[in-house]
C-alpha cells in the first residue's frame, strides 16, 4: 500500500504506507503548501490535460498506432512531471527512490507480461487521501523516471511508458478522511446486475451482449414503461440496496449505466444523465438534484439507525460521468461512494462507445472470476492498451472500495449458476 496524504493542519503532502514505511520522515515529505496552492497546481494540471486532449481530439479512434500513443503518453508524462515539481517546491528527491521501491515490489520488466490478467496480479494499492479538495489524480500522474526509457515508438516502448503511470501500475482509490464512516468490507451475496441504458447511444447491442454473457441475473434493460421512468428511482438504485423495479424484484449488487452524460462546470452540482427509451423515444433525465434528494433520505435513515447496508457497485459508461481529470472533489462518483454506493467506476472525459463496451467487458469478466474492482480496472486498462493500443483506460476513475468483489450468482431452480469467488492473488 502506498498513500499520498494531504495533512491539512500541517499544510503538508506526504507519503505513507507499507511501501515507504522504512523511510525517514524527511524522505517521505513531498512538499509543504497550502490547500489553495495545491488546488491551484491541480487546476493547472487539469488545464494541461485539457489542452493535450484538444490537440489529439481529431485523432480519437478505437485502435491507434504506437507512435501516436507514445507521443500522447509522453506529453501526459511531462504535464504530470510539471505538477509534481511544482508541489515539491522545484525538486523531486523522493521520486527516484519511490520508483526503485515499487520496481523492487513488482519485479523487473513486469510490464512486458503479455497476459493482462497476470499483470493485474502484480499491481499494488495506491491511495489519494485527505480532504476532497486535496485528492490527487494519481491514475494519470507518472510515478516513475522517464529517463530510463528509450522510446522508439514501438509497442514495447508504449508498454514501458504506460508502466510509469499510476493507473497502469496500481489500483487507485480516492478516499477522503471522512469516508471511513460508510466504507465497510464487502459481504459476498447474489450477483444481480441492473442495466440502465439509453437507446440513443452507439454499440448498445454490443453492451447488452456483454452483460448477457455474465454470470448471475441480468435485470433490464431499463428504463421502460412502468419501470425506472421516474429519475428518482434511478438515483435510488445507485445508493440503496433494495428490490429492483419491474417484474423481477431482486436486489442488484451492480448497476451498469450506458447513456449520455453532461456536466458543467462541476459534476456534483450539475450532472445530467439522459435515457431515451421505448418506441416513441420518451426521455428520462436523472440529475444531481435527484441524487441529492436520496442523500437526504439516507441521512434521515442513518440518524434513525434504520439502514446498515451499502448500495451496489456502479459502473458508468457515459462520457464525463465522473467529472474531469484533476477535479475529483466535484465528482458525483465521490458523492456516491461516500454516501451509499460500495464503489463507483467511470470515465472522467470523452470516450468512444466501442471502447467503453470493450473496457466494460473486461471489467465484468474479471468480476465474474472473483477479482476485486480495482484489479478489474487495471486489467481493463492493460487489455485495451495491449489489444487496441488505446490508453483511454486512464480516463476512468475508481471511487470507494477497490477491494470490493461480487458475490455468487442468483441460483436458478436448475442450479446451473452456482459459483464461488476465487481467492484473490
Can you give a write-up of this model?
The protein has 425 residues and is an alpha/beta fold. It contains 13 helices and 15 strands. Strands 6, 7, 8, 12, 13, 14 and 15 form a seven-stranded mixed β-sheet that branches. It has a five-stranded mixed β-sheet with strand order 3-2-1-4-5. A three-stranded antiparallel β-sheet has the order 9-10-11. The protein has two domains: 2-180, no CATH class; 184-409, Rossmann fold (3-Layer(aba) Sandwich). A hairpin with a 6-residue loop joins strand 10 (272-276) and strand 11. It starts with a strand and ends in a 16-residue tail after the last strand. The relative contact order is 0.13. The chain has helices at 35-56, 66-87, 95-106, 116-120, 155-162, 166-169, 204-212, 231-239, 267-270, 288-303, 332-339, 353-368, 373-388, and strands at 2-7, 12-16, 29-32, 124-130, 170-176, 190-197, 217-222, 254-258, 260-262, 272-276, 283-287, 313-317, 343-347, 396-400, 408-409. Helix 12 (353-368) packs across helix 13 (373-388).
Query: Uncertain regions: pLDDT < 50 for 5+ in a row?
Result: 177-186, 411-425
**Total number of helices:** 13
Mind telling me which CATH architecture of the largest domain this is?
A: 3-Layer(aba) Sandwich
- DSSP E strands, number: 15
Please identify the structural class as seen in this structure.
alpha/beta
Distance between the termini: 15 Å
Bin the helical content. Answer: 25-40%
Index terms:
single chain; 425 residues; alpha/beta; Rossmann fold; 2 domains; seven-stranded mixed sheet; five-stranded mixed sheet; 36% helix; 18% strand; globular; disordered C terminus
